[in-house]
Amino acid sequence: WGRVHADYHRLVADLGYVVVSIDNRGTPAPKGAAWRRSIFGSLGPLSTEEQAAGVKALAQSRPYVDLSRVAVWGWSGGGSNTLNAMFRKPDVYHVGIAVAPKPQPHLYNAWFQEIYMETRETNLDGYRRSAPINFAEGLKGDLLIVHGTGETNTHIQITEGLVDRLIELGKRFDYMAYPNRDHGLREGRGTAVHLRMLMVRYLIEH
Q: What DSSP element (H or E) covers 13?
């Protein structure tokens, strides 16, 4: 499955775009308990700040990077990061593609979410600060949201709440729902190719 993503990145690069993957917290380890626990209580805000700082640092060291034409994409947790980037850093990111995101973390799988954030009863502010839906008014750029309607991981209601919020705010965005597809969007003949072509087309058009 990773090869499919790699092929997508190669296709985008072949079209003349600079394709970069930034490791939020940096790879070298060990860095100690405080470093590991820095995200505890609120997944999202810290990685959003670090990704944006990484983009700016990249442009400083690579003069051919055009900061007026920055796109970001991600899947699942990466989709949530994409939403946070587009909503919280609209002057840094201009195009975003969020696949199977979780903009309302309190509705996501408790077994995962509560490892990092405890429960809403004990950490209400942490959930508020981590939820992209609460920052949707910041959207300025072009956003494509993609979700499978047969999700058993990130249930579609988690994304549809955001869709309703963006409509309420009068925001312009694009939304693609793949019928009866699960979290990996693998079901159905032609789905993987269709999704990648949709993403490439969105980048080219915007």
A: helix 2-14
Q: For the chain, what percentages of helix, strand and coil (3-state, to nearest 5) are there?
A: 50, 10, 40
Q: What are phi and psi of 93, to 5 degrees?
A: -110, 135
Query: What's the average pLDDT block by block, 10 residues per block, for the chain (206 residues)?
Result: 65 87 72 78 87 94 94 93 97 97 88 84 90 97 97 92 98 96 91 93 94
Angle of helix 191-205 relative to helix 2-14, nearest 10 degrees?
A: 30
DSSP, res 154: S
In angstroms, the CA 85 to CA 83 distance is 5
Best CA proximity match to 138, nearest among 63, 61, 194, 85: 85
DSSP secondary structure letter of residue 204: H
d(CA 118, CA 126) in angstroms, rounded, equals 9
Rounded-to-integer distance, Cα 155 and Cα 147, Å: 9
Q: Could you read off the pLDDT of 26-48 as tens digits, one per residue?
A: 666 677 778 777 878 788 888 89
Mention every residue, 6+ apart, whose C-beta is less than 8 A from residue 100.
75, 76, 79, 146, 147, 148, 151, 153, 154, 159, 183, 185
